[in-house]
Batch of 2 targets.
Target 1
Amino acid sequence: MGKLSIVATPIGNLEDITLRALRTLKECDGIYAEDTRVISKLLAWYEIKKPLQRLDSATEIKKADEIITRLEAGEYVVLVSDAGTPCISDPGARLVAQVREKLPDVEIEAVPGPSALTATLSIAGLNVTEFTFLGFLPHKKGRQTALKKIAVSEIPIVLYESPHRILKLLKELEDLHISRIIIARELTKIHEETVSGTPTEVLTHFAMHTESIRGEFVVIVKP
Ligand code: SAM
């Protein structure tokens, strides 16, 4: 029986990768990546050459069958996403579930490392004994329900958001009369920035610094 490794990769800064992740990428038989072009840059940086295949949310189920066959044949297969930890708002969970179900004896190992979730929590200055991670809010159906959940939460809520929707989200949080939020943008990258305040204050910041409405965002809503 082979082995499936779920390997965390950097969320920006290419130096944020563990020695074990590098060894795993070097030793495996093949890598499945959300976007092979993205992971190729990381592999080229570390001079790792491996057969690469795409596994994104559209191809995950189909590729799971192929990976199961490879694991049965004794291969060592790695899954990575574009950034951070696979399966955290990224493809991979359905693959892992399939492998668990169909090959219960196969080892599935985590090679932990960066995640925008834990990176943001680590600099938020909150006593994070408990929190709710909602990831990306649904765009339409279920969004209002999620927002209502946020409004009454007694513990911090962590959200992922894209630059296209960050202003919409901030306005919604303003309407909910949320008292304080923390936003981490472009963590580990050149334009890394953390902004905190009321949603209105953060909206004012973005109105004054429109160049800041770019990149990737994590939003923490304080209870
Ligand atoms: N699996 C990833 C992880 O472990 O963090 C998350 C993947 S999810 C598709 C991408 C979202 O993660 C972005 O829209 C943003 O909300 C967040 N994110 C990823 N990299 C980030 C960074 N460098 N700074 C801030 N947020 C980031």
Target 2
Amino acid sequence: MPKLPRIAAGNWKMHGLSADLAEARALAAAFPEPAVEVLLCPPATLIARMAVTLGGSGLRVGGQDCHASDAGAHTGDISAAMLADAGAAYVILGHSERRADHGETSAEVAAKVAAAWQAGLVAIVCLGETEDERAAGRTLDVVAAQLAQSLPEGATPANTVVAYEPVWAIGSGRTPTEDEIAEVHGFLREQSPDPEIRLLYGGSVKPDNADTVFAVPGVDGALVGGASLKASDFGAIVAALARA
Ligand code: PGA
């Protein structure tokens, strides 16, 4: 199988009102046919409109979470089928903010991943250690357990992307060293059910460190939070990935 393209995924988290669709429009204008896979994951309220905004460009849309069931009495939740129906092609699952804010376990993440596949979505499965776990030398144990428990049977390079996001690097402006990223990515590649499953790095990726991050062996792209909100910043990261 030919190697899949690298990925730049933007996670808007709980940011974004209608006016911010202008950023998506500007990104699509800058990269009508991106050389890498580019997607934005806005809040659920903007998914359908963003899908229309990006329609015709090579840019795609994703959700930030889904329920494990197709439909049902789950007030406030959204199913994977609904995300797909709104125009999403991906869904971020198991982000550390969901694991922390909502107590999501890896077993729950695995059930959501299965639901995402069922709906035809690519699951972007997040994992990563806390600062205390790194200090205790437990990083590899933590990510190995999260990987094993968050992926159900059946993960393939076509339906799954894994994002290594050290919790302490998210939104903090701090990043692991290149050696630390390389170590975890090399380890995850060995532990992965398929070595072709793409491994993204996430946590304070910015235009000024993107070239460095993308030069690390084993990094197949980035999951970008804060810097994905502005087309100029995210565009610089996409450009860095395209030339990596
Ligand atoms: P950040 O967020 O780029 O703002 O650190 C990354 C993420 O949480 O996916």
